[in-house]
From TrEMBL:
Family: Belongs to the polysaccharide synthase family.
UniProt entry tagged with the keyword Transcription regulation: no
Record carries keyword Transmembrane helix: yes
Listed name of the protein: UDP-N-acetylglucosamine 4,6-dehydratase
Domain Polysaccharide biosynthesis protein CapD-like stretches: 293-575
Pfam families: CoA_binding_3, Polysacc_synt_2
Species of provenance: Anaerostipes butyraticus
Length: 619
């Protein structure tokens, strides 16, 4: 098995070696034939005898020189101009030794032979390598790089993307980096050279060679890498203290767009090890394409990503509602740049403004509504419970009511895991929103559904931007409790699943997204510090501040996991409907409205009646 594996690893080198052995004999014959104008009958027999006696010595000497010039270690499908110059140099040196040897041994040979031999040998030796490069490579030659004091770089990935990055680094005068070594898990590449840079081994060699070469930056150039492999490799890289960069994704390779400028810093999302979301494109296209779509809270983290992804599905029009003009304006400009044919309209409005919402629905008559507008900051809402109820609950009622009035086909509420056994007013308000959606679904042709998921990384108000800012300021990084855990999902990931859940809607469902494994917030903080090239507890202090009012140690996505229903997508489930007495619910909603708009200090008690599992102030 070991002999076979070794042969497989050196297969290309062996093939080239055999080509060179045959090629050198052919070059000798062609050189002497050229000298005598390709008339074999005029060639003196002693010239032929000399070449035959000399053949073995010439071959061994030449192969030794070729090996010294690494002609059997280079990955020729990624070869650069410098690699082909190496071939020319190797042939010249081998020919020089041949010339010296022939004269020292006084072997009779025409003087013009050596010149002709250099030409034929160079051509024959380089041709198979050019064929490999042309058939399996084919890249343009960039400009030469100006000599600078470069940053020592370790490149992970000896594939097509890695070669593109390496070529630009080596040849661009604008990139101040030097790739010292390459890591690749393909053992067949170990000991070879890519564009003159050694492939030193797999991921197990990262720490060793980071120290040996004094590496300052590590670039992960494997766009097709599986999520769990990416997580493992990046966790190893973190231990080096080097700056970490990576390519964004394999879609960049489709148009051969891989460039150094596309490298981005490794983000905390990359360390989660989550597999890419798989959605059914035709399902989503069917209910979005050619329809009028409205997104409330469109300027927020989730809302703006909803708009971006919806734009990909070619709606007839996209209506964005938000009460914060700056975010909404920036989103509108972005969408107009990327989707110039899309009919995009932005309206500045609060969902609490009942009459304005009514007028908007009457004028634009959206067919699909994604309701993402909400107050979501837990500590802030604890201090402003009436505003949480007015915006979240009655804003949802306003949107749901007008959706029914104009015959909207489907309304999707963006909910939260904090709606499960809530310990804060924000979570309780979203629980009531889910109940509102269920109630409207019983009395309307509109399909009302809710999608419940946990925290999204990088969203406004999440811990990630907070930690990032604290690290930039030199610390301390504040964590409320050493054991606190949360479910996390990236914003694009969550929105893709929201759109997919919308395709499954029949009306009345509460969809729950699989958030994967929970993440310990302390680990998250430590990883972010390490990604910044710093050491937790030394360079940046981690300070525990205690749980805030209404904050849990852990969140729940489902109340009864045994009764959840599966959907065609393994990342999306359907939870059980919330049991409620509709008449009492409507009566309690009226009382809640009076309390909220009169700023009743006892509003939490009414919320408790609506949501019995709500624990006021965490008690």
């Amino acid at each position: 098995m070991k002999i076979k594996e070794k042969f497989m690893r050196k297969r290309s080198a062996i093939v080239l070696l055999l080509c060179d052995i045959v090629g050198l004999q052919l070059a000798s014959a062609l050189a002497i034939l050229t000298r005598f104008e390709f008339q074999p009958s005029t060639v003196e027999p002693y010239f032929v005898d000399t070449l035959l006696r000399y053949a073995v010595l010439n071959t061994f000497c030449s192969l030794f020189i070729f090996a010294a010039y690494r002609l059997y270690a280079i990955l020729w499908r990624f070869a650069s101009v410098m690699d082909f110059f190496n071939v020319v140099k190797a042939v010249l040196v081998a020919s020089a030794f041949q010339f010296i040897g022939m004269h020292l041994l006084a072997w009779p040979i025409p003087r013009s032979y050596i010149i002709l031999y250099i030409g034929w040998a160079g051509l024959i030796v380089v041709m198979p390598r050019i064929l490999i490069r042309v058939l399996r490579g084919g890249r343009k030659i960039p400009l030469q790089k100006v000599d600078k004091q470069p940053t020592a770089v370790m490149l992970i990935g000896a594939g097509e993307a890695g070669n593109m990055i390496l070529n630009e680094i080596k040849n661009s005068q604008f990139v101040d980096k030097e790739v010292c070594c390459i890591i690749d898990d393909d053992s067949k590449k170990w000991g070879t050279f890519l564009n003159g840079v050694p492939v030193v081994g797999g991921r197990h060699k990262i720490l060793q060679y980071a120290v040996r070469f004094g590496i300052k930056e590590i670039i992960l150039a494997v766009p097709t890498i599986e999520a769990h492999d990416r997580k493992e490799i990046l966790n190893i890289c973190k231990q080096t203290g080097c700056k970490l960069s990576m390519l964004p994704g394999m879609y960049q390779l489709i148009n051969s767009e891989v460039k150094v400028s596309m490298l981005r810093d490794v983000q905390i999302e990359d360390l989660l090890g989550r597999e890419p979301v798989k959605t059914d494109l035709p399902d989503i296209m069917q209910y979005v394409e050619g329809h009028k779509v409205m997104v409330t809270g469109g300027g927020g983290s989730i809302g703006s990503e909803l708009c971006r992804q919806i734009a990909n599905y070619h709606p007839e029009s996209l209506l964005i509602l938000d009460n914060y003009e700056n975010n909404a304006y920036e989103l509108q400009m972005e969408l107009k740049r990327h989707y110039p044919e899309l009919d995009v309209m932005v309206l500045i409005v609060s969902v609490q403004n009942r009459q304005r919402i009514r007028n908007i629905f009457a004028k634009y008559r959206p067919e699909i509504v994604f309701h993402a507008a909400a107050h979501k900051h837990v500590p802030l809402m604890e201090n402003s419970p009436c505003d949480a109820i007015k915006n979240n609950v009655f804003g949802t009622i306003n949107v749901a009511k007008e959706a029914s009035a104009v015959g909207t086909k489907r309304m999707v509420l963006i909910s939260t895991d904090k709606a499960v056994r809530p310990t804060n007013i924000m979570g309780a308000s979203k629980r009531i929103c889910e109940m509102v959606i269920q109630t409207f679904n019983q009395h309307s042709d509109t399909e009302y559904v809710a999608v419940r998921f946990g925290n999204v990384l990088g969203s406004n108000g999440s811990v990630v931007p907070l930690f990032r800012k604290q690290i930039q300021e030199g610390g301390p990084v504040t964590v409320t409790h050493p054991e606190i855990i949360r479910y996390f999902m990236t914003i694009p990931e969550a929105v893709s699943l929201v759109l997919q859940a919308g395709a499954y809607a029949k009306g009345g469902e509460i969809f729950i997204l699989d958030m994967g494994e929970p993440v310990k917030i302390l680990d998250l903080a430590e990883n972010m510090i390490r990604l910044s090239g710093l050491t937790p507890g030394e360079d940046i202090e981690i300070k525990f501040t205690g749980l805030r009012p209404g904050e849990k140690l852990y969140e729940e996505l489902l109340i009864d996991e045994d009764n959840k229903k599966e959907t065609p997508n393994k990342r999306i489930f359907i939870g059980q409907p919330i049991p409620l007495d509709e008449e009492k619910f409507i009566e309690d909603i009226r009382r809640l409205e009076t309390a909220a708009f009169s700023e009743d200090p006892n509003i939490r008690d009414i919320v408790k009646e609506l949501v019995p599992e709500y624990t006021i102030n965490g008690h």
